[in-house]
Amino acid sequence: MQVLVALSGGVDSSVAAALLAEQGHEVIGVTMRLWGGESDTGCCSVADVEDARRAAAQLGVDHHVFNFSDEFDGFVVAPYVADHASGRTPNPCVECNRHLKFDVLLRRAELLGVDAVATGHHARVHTSGDGTRRVARGADPAKDQSYVLYPLTSAELHRVWFPIGHLTKGEVRERARALGLRTAAKPDSQDVCFITRTGGREEFLGSRIPLHRARVVDTDGRELGSTDAVELVTVGQRRGLGLAGGAGRRFVVDVDVPGRTVTVGPPERLLADGVALDRLVWADRPVRGAVLAQCSAHGPALPAVVEPGPDRTARLRWDEPQRRIAAGQSVVLYDGDVVLGGGLAI
Amino acid sequence: MSSAPDHDAPHHDAPDAVRGAAVGVVHGAVADVADLDHAATTRLRPEARAAMEPFLDGRHGNPSGAHALARDAVRAVDEAREQVAALLGCRPGEVVFTSGGTEADVHAVTGGLPVREGVPVCSAVEHPAVREPVRSLGGREVAVDALGRVDLEALDRVLVELGPAASVVSVMAANNEVGTVNDLAAVAEVVRRRGGAPLHTDAVQAAAWLDLAVVAAPAELVSVSAHKFGGPKGVGVLVVRDGTPLRPLLAGGGQERGRRSGTTNVAGVVGAAAALAATVRDRAVTNRRIATLRDQMADSFVATVPGLRMTVAPGTDRSHLLPGACHLTIDGVDSEELLLLLDRDGVAASSASSCASGAQHASHVLASLAAAGNDAAASDAASLRLSLGWDSTDVEVDRVLAVLPEVVARIRTHRARAAGTGGS
Fold first, then answer.
1. Could you tell me which chain A residue has the CA closest to the CA of B422?
2. Pair B178, B190: CB distance under 8 Å
């Protein structure tokens, strides 16, 4: 088959392309140019395009660069900024997968008449008896990326492959070394690709939206101090508010951007019985009842009961009270290792 | 996707030197590509290859020496210089060999190091090799008309405003994206009237087609790049007319009469001279043949592909274009998708100038045309540059005639379907 492989310039996607080529598929390597601005986190940089191109050449496959920077700006960066401006906590990697890799790129593959799109994600595709496909956790629990892939539906998963999902990271590097790929020892990319390590979120957001000073108060309304940028504060956050010690551990329990107020309190004030979700995506059909719910890329999957509502909403009730989930965070629902769906915390 | 190479297909209209060279490239290179991107680069002419070969082998001397090998190289470079001078209409002492068009342009605009004092001026549609140094020196850009020719009245205004501060005026002989030719005599008249800053012309695209001995005669500084007319890459010429002050950009061993240091690229300049000689020799025949092919191609597309037009030739008059230039704008498609599908069907084309990463970016040339009221350039239509060259064949043109309408239709159908299913 003809397969379009998204080559980021990293080791995972290089090996994904190599495995497909070994299996006899006609591989077309593609690097998406997503971010035109500054980056030092090892994603989308010129050096990465070069690594991808050299890996493709080593594997004897064609390589193209697709410029999706306008789409990336519109679907990922702008919503990221808008979310922060309204006090939400976005996950840009989820949005990039949702809109860029598995919509814009998938449509480009269709235009080319290519059968499938493959990426180097650590995830697998699970097919149930009735043919329904769902994302499943990768074989390497430490590297599992199923969380950021939850927007993929069964229909899309008929055309999406994860060739390295059954390997551990160590096995991937081993394959890369055996193939002599120059990406074999390349460090993993981390963090948000368009946020520089040196400047951080503050510099990035500060150049796009006004950041506002806010009062920090306790749950009785007593003023404890202030913070420079209320837009950067997340519910559940403990550090970085410059509060003096004493009076036990305090967490952010509420962020009121228009009111310029951050409320902190003891950990028990963070606990919630459940969370309401919107923009819900089900891999196949709505699921009701007992699930495992994961609220961050590598957080624990906790037992809960889900009750779907109208208009792509759902209500999740924890078996045991849990820390509140910041609005805008993705909550992904699993059955064992299989992703049933997910949505954004309201 | 690839069919068998087409070495044996008859090329009725092609000159002998071209036979067997077009679709299905010789010497085991990229197979089965119709090259419609000659504005980016051209194949080495056989005359250039033959002239270069001895200097890639036994005649390997460095001209900056005192022995027989060096004298052999000196003689070859002298002869190449004389040949180039005769073909470009200047004296041998006015020829400075460079590493290519970019170096020649940057040298002309900056005046060498330390840079010329004053404010450089250029047209708004110059190649980045002119535009970037002009910008970095705080220079001025002059608007163009809807066809891409520099606006002489706007130039006049800028030069009046700058007065003696204008340090150089740079106006390209022909544009690299859309192929429009400027009237350099008219430009020179304005420049002379307004204080007489040296006139530079980037003739990199024009050299393959126009008689620079005539066309570029009004310019004190003329840039040329060998690989655009069948010479090797990495060789350029800056003509510096006598009396035009110029410091070296690269100082060092004092080659090129101290104007450009660095060991002379002997094989390169010999190949450049041979390529230019062949270009001039065949010019009348080539230009007629290629303009006819270009017109067939453009007429066919305009007649058969809805929503397609020539960007800077709205009517039937194409006399202001280089013979090989065919810049199109096409509604309802995306440039990157267009190039990708053309590529997969064996057609090499470009959407703007062929620089940098290969990823597409907005064209400053189209933006300038749009500002001058060119509706085609102002639309969000895709742009496509098809450029023919000295060895283009009817077989290659037939290929793009067959492929482009089909590819455009495929993209439009796909877009309509994606819109129907409500993609994000």
1. A103
2. no
A 10 A CB-CB count for B81 gives: 22
Full set of structural domains in chain B with CATH: 16-43+283-420 (3.90.1150.10), 49-277 (3.40.640.10)
Closest residue by Cα to residue B111 from B235, B249, B240, B242 = B249
Integer Cα distance of B279 and B271 in angstroms: 12
A155 touches chain B (CB under 8 A): no
Q: What's the pLDDT tens digit per position in A188-216?
A: 876 788 888 888 888 999 999 999 999 99
* Cβ atoms A94, A330 nearer than 8 A: yes
Is the CB of residue A64 less than 8 Å away from at least one CB of chain B?
A: yes
Instruction: Give dist(CA B288, CA B295) in Å, integer.
Output: 11
Residue B255 phi/psi, 5° resolution? -65, 170
What residues of chain A lie within 8 A of the CB of B337, using their CB? 108, 111
User: Is B340 in Cβ contact with A112 (below 8 Å)?
Assistant: yes
Q: Write the DSSP symbol of residue B44.
A: P
| A248 pLDDT higher than 70 | no
Mean of the per-residue pLDDT values of chain A = 92
Task: Give the one of B358, B360, B424 whose C-beta lies nearest to A103's C-beta.
Answer: B424
Topology at the third CATH level for domain A271-345: Elongation Factor Tu (Ef-tu); domain 3 (2.40.30)
Tell me if chain A has a CB within 8 Å of the CB of B360: yes
Structure token digits, residue B376 = 């085609």
Is B423 within 8 Å of chain A by CB?
Answer: yes
For residue A151, which of A98, A188, A197, A107 has the smallest C-alpha distance? A98
Specify the pTM.
0.87
How many residues would you count in chain A? 346
Q: Is A70's pLDDT higher than 60?
A: yes
HEC states along B282-300? HHHHHHHHHHHHHHHHHHH
Task: Give domain A2-120+163-179's CATH number out of 3.50.50.60, 2.60.40.1080, 3.40.50.620, 3.40.190.10.
Answer: 3.40.50.620
- Identify the closest residue of chain B to A106 by CA–CA distance: B423
Nearest residue of B to residue A100 by CA position? B424
Q: Is the pLDDT of residue B12 over 70?
A: no
CATH class, A211-265 region: mainly beta
What mean pLDDT do residues B395-412 have? 97
Question: Given an 8 Å threshold on Cβ–Cβ distance, is A111 in contact with B410?
Answer: yes
Which tokens in the block code for residue B168? 């150089």
CB B418 within 8 A of CB B319: no
The answer to whether residues B239 and B90 touch, using CB atoms and an 8 Å cutoff, is: yes
Q: Which of A320-324, B96-100, B360-364 has the highest mean pLDDT?
A: B96-100
Q: Report ipTM (2 d.p.).
A: 0.83
3-state DSSP assignment of residue A325:
coil
User: With contacts defined as CB-CB under 8 Å, which chain A residues touch B340?
Assistant: 64, 66, 112
**A20-28: which pairs have CB atoms within 8 A and are 24 or more residues apart?**
A20/A118, A20/A161, A20/A163, A21/A59, A21/A60, A21/A61, A25/A1, A26/A1, A26/A2, A27/A3, A27/A59, A27/A61, A27/A62, A28/A2, A28/A3, A28/A4, A28/A61, A28/A62, A28/A64, A28/A112, A28/A114
B354 touches chain A (CB under 8 A): no
Candidates A203, A237, A223; CA nearest to A87 is A237
